[in-house]
């Protein structure tokens, strides 16, 4: 399960760099973090190595953070475009 969280977190990081779709990497990053937390608990109870689960947790939290950053960028772009559209509409109505 630790390997699965590393792979899913890595794919989420790659997905986060796709323009306009990178915000969705937040969701797969959260899923990978949940999987790595489960793997960490399972490895702790079985007294096994926790290395892959910790690496998966770090990668998945980084991908969720990148996805959230992309989400905030898209929100800022949306509000800027909306303000520009309102200003343009107001300037056209004045003429």
Element order: H for helix, E for strand: HHH
Instruction: Report the total helices.
Output: 3
Oligomerization:
single chain
Average pLDDT level? 90
How many domains make up the coordinates?
1
SS-based class = mainly alpha
Major sheet summary line: none
Strand content: under 5%
- Number of distinct beta strands: 0
Helix content, binned percent = over 70%
Q: Which radius of gyration do the C-alpha atoms yield? A: 20 Å
Unreliable stretches (pLDDT < 50, length at least 5) are none
| N-C termini distance | 64 Å
Overall, the morphology is: rod-shaped
Keyword list:
95 residues, mainly alpha, 3 helices, 0% strand, rod-shaped
Structure description:
This protein is mostly helical and 95 residues long. The protein has one domain (2-94). Helices cover 84% and strands 0% of the residues. It is built from three helices and no strands. Helix 2 runs antiparallel to helix 3. It starts with a helix and ends with a helix. The mean pLDDT is 90.
């Amino acid at each position: 399960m630790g390997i699965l969280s590393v792979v899913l977190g890595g794919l989420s990081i790659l997905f986060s760099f796709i323009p306009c779709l990178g915000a969705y990497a937040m969701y797969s990053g959260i899923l990978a973090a949940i999987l790595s937390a489960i793997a960490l608990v399972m490895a702790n109870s079985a007294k096994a190595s926790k290395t892959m689960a910790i690496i998966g947790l770090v990668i998945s939290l980084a991908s969720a953070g990148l996805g959230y950053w992309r989400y905030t960028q898209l929100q800022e772009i949306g509000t800027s475009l909306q303000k520009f559209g309102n200003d343009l509409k107001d300037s056209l109505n004045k003429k």
